[in-house]
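hey so i finally got around to running the thing on that chain from the lab meeting. sorry it took forever, my laptop kept dying and i had to restart like 3 times. anyway pasting the input first so we r on the same page abt which one it is
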Amino acid sequence: MRKLFKEDEFIYKQVAEDLIKRIQKNEFTKGKLLTERKLADEYNINRITLRKAVDILVKEKHVFRLGTKGTFIGQRSNSITPKTIGYVLINVDAFDEHHSKIILEFEKALKSFNSNLMIFTINSENQIKDVLLKLIQRRRLDGILVTGLTTAKIVKRLKKLDIPTVLLGYLIYSDPVENEFDRVILDSVDYSYRAVQYLIRLGHKEIALINGPSYQWFLNIYQGYIKALSDSNIEYKEKLVQKCEEDVSEHGVIAMNKILKNNSPAAVFAANDRLAYGALNAIKDKGLKIPNDISVVGIGNYENSKHTRPPLTTIDTQPKKIANTALKLLFERIADKKKDVQTKLVHVKIIERYSCEKR
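ok and heres what got predicted. didnt touch it at all, straight out
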């Protein structure tokens, strides 16, 4: 107990006065008060009494509460005024692991802003009006993050909402309108290039590509693949490239079987881990060994990638960096709607496992 209380004064008022003195002496070096439990123990009072003392400090603006993060010294700045952010997934009915990871990172990051996330799936322009517009008009949304199979038509409609917006990734087909928004991009040309160069450094030359549909980011993957081969003076062979109608495991199996029918590649680069899983299964079904006969690289670092046989070498798309970068852009846009548009690239890293080996 810090001191004996005067019997003729309310204890919580005395505690409040003492806490103010301690704040003025800079006793709380971390910029926030101790937890309620610790302070109640120090003053030998119950937590209800302690809370009443802290209420006085909040009212007099000596401190401010920030959810579960604690009670901070000073006045709350505008940068951490609570916000509601919408995560808008376009033309995708189910969340895959990539989106699920990013949503979790957004939710974690938003806690530091004392803010929360609302999740929407939009499959038509009418839904933009019926769902988003009503919330914006009621001031229930402060900004939105847009991702998925996003078309120029949808983005142009979103622009009319006049709400701070950050696009995550590319539109499915390139359009100048995307340059009118703040964007966070995984450079698919770059990470494709790096994946193929990684295989080349391992000594592989016959490198196959299993790619996804003709969306912008898959076209970028194709460009990175060609550039990596060209920079290493390796001949491009069209017969080693297969494009899938859907970027799912079953189509990875079909694509790999087509490649293996008349070719013997030393390595395979798949445009995401799902396609890579299909390639792994097709290779093993042919009686070939991974990585002894064929090395395989995917993209996404999905949870199952650790548990394939052998564990899949893959590219981590850095969901935490994506979330933090996007929220920084969005909160800057909320603070200043007239600021210059920015595009931020998030760099990836290769997770080396056992589906690749040197030649």
